């Protein structure tokens, strides 16, 4: 591996993209992220100061894969215990959580619909499912090697990683929110973790050890950040990535026209940025 002077390289394709008037508002909400310190636990992070507060209750469970709800007050996440795997809902004000559904596999990667009524998640190797949070009803969205759903801002489409062979040969696809009109967006064979931008024009994703961008209708693939992973977006269009392979690892915020800013050091496998309504 060649040495790097800076921990992150932000290329012009990210800094030069515009945002809508709605997403130009300042991001005030907290970040909820999984911290890896010999165990997996959820932390709330102040994006301005880097101050962290542990949300997970103890050491008898592994909490991960947070998904911040559009209301800015709740977070869906995965809890692993000796009793099994659970999809749970956490109240950020009380720090209490409740069970939504028991799962067979921990790699569910829940994702909220923009209206805050549904969660898309991966059902092991059986495809994607949609959970109605209020009723608990589950519907089948797809079957096969589909994972890591991400909703478009208008709620009409879902991006996901599709494994063509079942052996890790993944690329980014999209489909209508009812599962119709599946279409391939990227041409890689190790693309995963899609994250739809708040303005609807781009999808961030992982390709091997870098974060890339692709236009939401496919094409124009380009590197956004070298040596990073776990892309997610703030409501104002700031891109948040995790960088843990270099000495200066941590969570980084990449805003338009600004240098990458490290919010907090450490190893953070996944994160979400809640709307600033609290």
Name some characteristics of this structure:
single chain; 278 residues; mainly beta; Neuraminidase; 4-stranded antiparallel beta sheet; 1 helix; globular
Descriptive notes:
The protein has 278 residues and is mostly beta strands. The protein has one domain (29-273): 6 Propeller (Neuraminidase). 1% of the residues lie in helices and 46% in strands. It has 1 helix and 24 strands. The strands form 6 sheets. A 4-stranded antiparallel β-sheet has the order 3-2-1-24, with no helix packed on it. Strands 4-5-6-7 form a 4-stranded antiparallel β-sheet, with no helix packed on it. A hairpin with a 5-residue loop joins strand 6 (84-91) and strand 7. Residues 1-7, 9-13 and 15-26 have low confidence and may be disordered.
Radius of gyration: 17 Å
Low-confidence stretches: 1-7, 9-13, 15-26
- In CATH, what is the class? Mainly Beta
How large is the count of helical segments? 1
Which H/E pattern describes the elements? HEEEEEEEEEEEEEEEEEEEEEEEE
In brief:
The chain is mainly beta and 278 residues long. The chain contains one helix and 24 strands.
């Amino acid at each position: 591996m060649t040495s790097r002077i800076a921990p992150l390289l932000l290329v012009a394709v990210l800094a030069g993209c515009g945002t809508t008037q709605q997403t130009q508002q300042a991001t005030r909400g907290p970040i909820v992220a999984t911290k890896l310190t010999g165990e997996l636990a959820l932390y709330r992070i102040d994006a301005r100061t880097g101050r962290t507060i542990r949300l997970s209750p103890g050491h008898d469970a592994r909490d991960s894969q947070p998904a911040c709800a559009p209301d800015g007050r709740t977070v869906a996440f995965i809890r692993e215990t000796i009793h099994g795997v659970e999809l749970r809902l956490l109240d950020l004000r009380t720090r209490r959580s409740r069970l939504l559904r028991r799962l067979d596999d921990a790699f569910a990667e829940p994702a909220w619909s923009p209206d805050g009524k549904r969660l898309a998640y991966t059902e092991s190797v059986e495809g994607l499912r949609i959970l109605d949070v209020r009723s608990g009803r589950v519907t089948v969205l797809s079957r096969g090697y589909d994972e890591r759903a991400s909703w478009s801002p208008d709620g009409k489409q879902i991006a996901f990683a599709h494994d063509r062979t079942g052996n890790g040969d993944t690329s980014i696809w999209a489909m209508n929110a009812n599962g119709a009109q599946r279409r391939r967006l990227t041409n890689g064979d190790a693309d995963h973790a899609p994250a739809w931008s708040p303005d609807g024009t781009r999808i961030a994703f992982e390709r091997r050890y870098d974060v890339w961008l692709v236009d939401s209708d496919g094409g124009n693939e380009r590197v956004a950040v070298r040596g990073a992973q776990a892309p997610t977006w703030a409501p104002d269009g700031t891109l948040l990535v995790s960088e843990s392979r270099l000495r200066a690892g941590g969570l980084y915020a990449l805003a338009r026209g600004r240098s990458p800013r490290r919010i907090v050091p450490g190893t953070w496998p996944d994160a979400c940025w809640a709307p600033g309504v609290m």
